[in-house]
Amino acid sequence: MSLAGDLSSALPAGSVIVEEAQLRTYESDALTGWRATPQAVVLPASTAEVAVAVGICRAHGAPFVARGAGTGLSGGAVPVAEGIVIGLARMNRVLDVDAANRRARLQPGVTNLDVSRAAAPHGLYYAPDPSSQQVCTIGGNVAENSGGAHCLKHGFTTHHVLELELVTAEGTVERLDRLGRLDLVSGVVGSEGTLGIVTEVVVRLLPLPERVETLLAAFDSTDAAGEAVSAIIAAGILPSAIEMMDRLAIEAAEAAVAAGLPDAGAVLLVELDGPAEEVAHWSRRVRECCAVHGAGELRAADDPERRAALWRGRKSAFAAVGRISPDYYVQDGVVPRTALPGTLRRIEELSREYGLRVANVFHAGDGNLHPLVLYDAAAGEAERAERLATDILAACIEAGGSLSGEHGIGLDKACDMPRMFGDQDMAAMLRLRHAFDPEGLCNPGKAFPTPRLCGEVPGPYRAHPVEREGVERL
Fold first, then answer.
1. What is residue 472's three-state secondary structure?
2. What burial class does residue 382 get, using C-beta atoms within 10 Å of its C-beta: 0-12 exposed, 13-18 middle, 19+ buried?
3. Partners of 374 in the β-ladder
């Protein structure tokens, strides 16, 4: 029997999609430049059904790709044409909130924001908060080790995941925790779905702070705003978030949501949380740091509605650039905080060289840049935009940074991995991957360069034969 036929026979009715029109819904993630149509899509409702689907794929030698909400920005959930997509949207229950131990047990299809909603009646919340938190799922957050605005103080997904349930590439179900000598949880978080499919997650919850205050400071330039960021951190202040938007990002946000952002070269959003007296003390210090470095306007808010108003522009920034450009390319790199001004100047130089605008909106507190390259595909600018985005990544690495802060490598940046890692590094990572998935069926073609995409890449790493087969680069 065929792969699709075996899946349909083994799983409940309505769990397997094979119609061409419906399959196209699963061709790409939010980075729409990569597309491939799978043989079938499986929508399991339980860990047992995931294990059955994986077991059938293994019997057929067929690759499989786990998918959450499809909000990823690196091509990490793009399917392989010969294989299937295992969509986890139906596994969307908060299984338990253990308030006494500040833990929540979740299925992977639970949205990020729903975790905090479930925890709020207990005076708790979940700290990692990607910009897409209303729709992105916990399973995807685990795959990419997502962060968000508040990871500066509270850490990334990996700092909050305590246990995982994993369906391995062999179709077995394993429970992983951090209690033994070998911490496999840390290996799975951020592995981009290449080690297995996470079907249950236990996360750490934090107490809701006594007070939260958000400050918005306007500056004439990103250089001045960057200097203020360095001064805040050098003063020993640890805000929960420090976000920056440049003039072009401000223009886009205003066009999209009319957030009331000031007309400035750059704005900083600085958020503080904790005991009321502590927040008041650090608020005064932040204001001083901003004033010393030329802040022309400063607003503050400590009630939820007014704080949400200050955040509205930042939270809408990615989608907002669609108001000022027909197409845009979101990049994700990291530089040391001290390198922010120089790197932003280099991005401006590259923007002029390529003749394309770049809007900068990013997590300034930890140097996680999200430059948005604006272009018009209809005018033949897509390839030029991609080259510019790649050169921005190269600038991040030259400044002592890295390829990705939270969006992952996926298909998008796989060819750039040798810029940052040597042969021995790559071989070590692939040994771990092959230990979990010796047949190379689990999300093949992601995170590592392969000859089909990058040409013959030197080094000890080799692609599985099915990697990237049928994937179309638009």
1. strand
2. middle
3. 328
Average pLDDT, integer, range 10-17: 97
Q: What percent of the chain has pLDDT over 90?
A: 88
Band (pLDDT 50/70/90 cuts) for residue 453 is low
**pLDDT at site 471:** 54
**Position 464 confidence tier, pLDDT thresholds 50, 70, 90:** very low
Q: Which residues on adjacent β-strands are paired with residue 104?
A: 97, 203
Q: 193-214 in b/e burial notation, b at 16+ Cβ within 10 A?
A: bbbbbbbbbbbbbbeebeebbb
CA distance 160 to 143: 13
Eight-class DSSP state of 137: B
Q: Encoding tokens for residue 388?
A: 């510019």
Measure the CA–CA gap between 417 and 88, rounded to whole angstroms.
Answer: 29
The sign of the torsion formed by the CA atoms of 278, 283, 286, 288 equals negative
What the chain holds in terms of domains, given with CATH numbers, is 3-87 (3.30.43.10), 94-207 (3.30.465.10), 211-318 (3.30.70.2190), 325-398 (3.30.70.2740), 418-463 (no CATH)
Integer angstrom CA distances of residue 161 from 102, 164, 292: 12, 8, 39
Number of residues that this document lists for the chain:
474
pLDDT surpassing 60 at residue 447: yes
Query: What is the average pLDDT score of the chain?
Result: 92
